[in-house]
Design brief:
single chain; mainly alpha; 6 helices; 3% strand; 3-stranded antiparallel sheet
Length: 270
């Protein structure tokens, strides 16, 4: 009978010791302040995750818009290449940030999993404490699932970023300097031809505003004012009055065949 009582006492002492250890480990769970702190941390984590998703989605959209704008603009090849290289540097920087965030989330998942394992109830007979632990475990499992979803999103975005970088690098590779050299040479030839046409036009205009006899410019009035003969040719007054025939076509003319041209707008329409 004494041995039985001793065994019962030993069992009670073991159970009490186990219960005290479990309660000592879980004492923060029973404090209202700790529960409030956990709820606040959970809300902060949700807000941080939402901001992270928004911040990660925005750069990808901006990069796609910039890429579309670069494709629609034809300009200096050097400027285009510089812009593409700047975009690649930004994408690589963004990719590194994504990898850092991914590493941080993996570390956070490992920490949560470790906490999960530590909170596993060691004494299934303690129902109340086990219920609280199970609630915390559900929260941890939900957080792990959410982090896993965010991790997949970051990995997918990293793949998208790398794909955009490859497209930009391919565009740079396709910008053959030889093609631009040929294009510049064609533009230079067209420019020189246009310059030649302009010079010829200036020469024609100069010829039209000077007397063909003395090569002096006409005047609006005075001895060298502009006179038109019956045949339509133009000369300065003092020069043509000395002649009786048109020096260009040989048509005879008299004083009545000469007409004064008034005003300065005497250039023909070109």
């Amino acid at each position: 009978m004494g041995d039985t009582n001793d065994d019962v006492n030993d069992l009670i002492e073991i159970n009490m010791h186990t219960s005290e250890e479990f309660q000592a480990d879980e004492s923060p769970l029973e404090q209202p302040q700790e529960n409030a702190r956990e709820r606040e941390n959970s809300r902060c984590q949700e807000a941080k995750d939402h901001d992270l998703e928004t911040q990660q989605a925005q750069p990808d959209e901006n990069l796609k818009q910039d890429t579309q704008q670069e494709k629609s603009v034809v300009g200096d090849p050097t400027v285009i290449i510089q812009k593409l290289q700047q975009q690649i540097e930004e994408l690589q920087k963004n990719s590194q940030q994504l990898l850092n965030q991914l590493s941080e989330i993996k570390s956070q998942n490992a920490s949560i999993q470790k906490t999960n394992n530590e909170l596993q109830p060691q004494n299934p007979q303690v129902d109340e404490a086990s219920t609280k632990v199970n609630q915390i475990l559900k929260k941890l499992e939900w957080q792990i699932s959410k982090n896993a979803t965010l991790e997949d999103h970051l990995e997918e975005q990293d793949k998208s970023t790398k794909f955009i970088i490859q497209e930009l690098e391919q565009q740079i590779a396709e910008l053959d300097p030889g093609l631009f050299r040929n294009e510049l040479e064609e533009k230079e030839r067209a420019y020189l031809e246009e310059i030649g046409r302009l010079r010829q036009r200036v020469h024609n205009l100069y010829a039209n505003i000077t007397c063909s006899l003395c090569q002096a410019p006409w005047t609006a009035e005075g001895e060298h004012r502009l006179i038109s003969l019956y045949c339509g040719h133009l000369f300065g007054k003092i020069c043509i009055e000395r002649l009786s025939e048109c020096p260009i076509c040989g048509l005879a003319f008299g004083s009545t065949d000469m007409r004064y041209i008034y005003g300065r707008n005497i250039l023909p329409a070109d």
